[in-house]
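Lecture notes, structural biology module. Today: joint structure prediction for complexes of two components.
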Amino acid sequence: MSDTVDELVAGLFRSDARATARLITLVEDEAPEVARIQSAIRDRVGRAYRVGFTGPPGAGKSTLVAALAKHWVNDGESGRVARVSIVAVDPTSPFTGGALLGDRVRMTSLDPSVFIRSMANRGRLGGIAATTDGVCDVLDAYGSDWLLVETVGVGQSEVEIAECADVTVVVLTPGTGDSVQLLKAGLMEVAEIVVVNKADRPGADSLVAEIQSIVGMRPHSDVPMPIVSTVATENKGIDELAKTIEEYRTQQVSRGLLETRRKRNLRAKIQRLVEARLRREIWGGKGASEELDATVECILRKEETPWDASERIVKKWIR
Amino acid sequence: MSDTVDELVAGLFRSDARATARLITLVEDEAPEVARIQSAIRDRVGRAYRVGFTGPPGAGKSTLVAALAKHWVNDGESGRVARVSIVAVDPTSPFTGGALLGDRVRMTSLDPSVFIRSMANRGRLGGIAATTDGVCDVLDAYGSDWLLVETVGVGQSEVEIAECADVTVVVLTPGTGDSVQLLKAGLMEVAEIVVVNKADRPGADSLVAEIQSIVGMRPHSDVPMPIVSTVATENKGIDELAKTIEEYRTQQVSRGLLETRRKRNLRAKIQRLVEARLRREIWGGKGASEELDATVECILRKEETPWDASERIVKKWIR
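The predicted structure, tokenised, for the full assembly:
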């Protein structure tokens, strides 16, 4: 790499797409330059509003995100054109899966002013959330007004992504039966706005009713949760969804909740960074792999249990 | 709890279901007794064959797992009745979601001799894989011949669960379009046997063809990957799937690959245990929460970047 970090950051501040893309790659690769990058951009981080989108595969998240991006680019707040960036960390997303695997890209005619970044790296030492967060910071400093983060939500990943977002939108579809199961099983923990996409399909009304009854069972069900119906492929309901998100943000800001939320996210971020560093320190060092193999043999010879082995290793490392 | 760990373990070895359930709860809760439990059962761990099932929500994994369990209970190897245990860590599974949330249990008439354990705890310090692995060890010592672990696979969780299993079965269905995307995006990394369930639906043949072409693109495509078509609700293809899994195991054992696989899993297990302990040590200690809050304020005052803060914290803890 010939450009220095300072040159790339200068490019980022000029909204140069190429420099931005290269900085993102450094962050994704957890390169040694990350410390410098964080330090150089920190005064420009915090302006973008980060919207996380999660839901089961096939819910139409990518199409919805693309439609919203177009909405905000065209109808930017206060007259000027808004800058929108999309980060896709969903292995089923056409942004990600399509770009990665040469598959057909289902998304067409997205405004060229929208910056799209697909993240397909899974199982890195730092975890997906650590990297996503860093990429969002770069795109924040790039000058994004809206940062849309898309991820598939059916396991633990949605909780991690919720920790990177200012608001989490859960996207469901009628007719699959899994939507309600997923909502009950965990998505409700992170949902702040619910979208019923593909709302022209049979069962949309009953899905909305089911969601309302689940929402009513929450511990703090006095806070109404917005439920918006959309048909993203036909651009239906997108204006209303955009308005709902904008109102949510206004409420958060006026009640001081955005600050609280960002502090909570920052706490989680520090923890993730520390854990990633510890993993690198302990498992990435010289001789670490051979030591681990020796421990495995020890356990197989019944000289030690896995539990005892882990205690021994921790004691060796921790002060 | 009035029973001592020794009493519970004695109950486990007598195949007492109540004692077994209580030991599992201790493991799930990451109770201090876990070290004693591991040590007491270690000579009885390793006999069960662990089959992991993963795939998108709605693929019919629970029904398939239940049908297989019935098959093995009824047609146990070498004449005697096989003991089968099921561990469900899938938030969309009727075993888990149903039991937890009072939903209708779609599964009916499962043989009472099958031990079913649902795990719904998400986001614990140790992570789902650490707990699942410990629960499997208890059910192994209980005398299970077959341990069937079901998890939804669309993010990182399937990789973790693959690290607990002797073989990973990926379950897909025709007609959704997402199956192939998921397979490309990550499920292929863990797939050793692929099931096309709901094979009576339109598109089953073309899904099989698509899977075959993806399988052919693997780096080691000289090793054939079995693809089995089933209709679990009608018990179709279950015999063939059982036979395929049994043959896979026979091959693994005769070529010494089961031992290699278990060593690799044990390595991953040690790493998970160490990381869980470190997390508890660093974030669970007295004053840790207040210190984290102070760090957040420090970062917000721009006195420190998150990166620098994480370095400082790591240096404080690591020798």
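Point to remember: The radius of gyration of chain B is 22 Å.
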